[in-house]
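[RESIDUES AND BACKBONE]
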Amino acid sequence: MVSSSTQPASGLLTRRNVLRAAWAVALGTAAGTAAHGFMYERHHIEVTEQTLEVAGWPSALSGLRIGFLTDLHRSSTVSHEMIAGAVDLVMARGPDLIIVGGDYVTNRDRRFIQPAADALARLAAPNGVFAVLGNHDDERDVPAALQSAGFAVLKDARTQISVRNEPVDIAGLRYWTHRMADIVRVVRGASPTLLMIAHTPKRLVEAMALSVPLLLCGHTHGGQIVLPGIGAVAAREFPIIAGAERRENTTVFVSRGVGTVYIPVRVNCPPEVAILTIQPLTA
């Protein structure tokens, strides 16, 4: 006679098999996603071409094109070829000026400072190349290497250039500068056509308070790993994780960056360089 417990045991075994199969699929999917993020996605640099409308931007400067690249993180896992490829993508589009937004190496690794500058050295634009420092950069060797490549490094400083006979002020903040009084000192006396570069988008709060027309940032890597239904867990602390928005009188663009940090993987978040076309804000 067949035991009455045979059927439930068989059903339990079936459920266990289903759960094991589900876990196997999930682990396989995760492994496949990570492998894709390591082997392919982190190397596939996109060119983001976007028009930004900026409050108070003069009509004489309508159509000004800014090349923007950031978060290079030259290291043993971010090669010279990858950064040089990002440079090629920017240079092929002939921007009017170029901004580089910080984190040239990871954890101030001196071995890669000069290689990072060498990979960037081909950057050139009619109105100059301007750089700020990120939280992974030191205050001496990185600026020296960038300056030797011909870049203007703005450490809590502002410079003015003339574009189409119009003054344009470019203000660059150090990553660690966050006191309002220090930021006010940098922008005090600037022309209404002001571009601020801040490595972290957390400076959006101060930029809005000061009615800075245009703010360019990096640092977030766009989250680097963006999970379906969950999002960019690693970047939730930032007011904007990636892309362009207008907040009050400030237009901000946050780049996903070029390199990776800590783990050499990108998921649903490809690296990018940006070509930003600036137009006056229309009512």
User: Anything to note?
Assistant: Residues 1-6, 8-12, 21-38 have pLDDT under 50 and may be disordered. The chain has six helices and twelve strands. Residues 6-39 form the longest helix (34 residues).
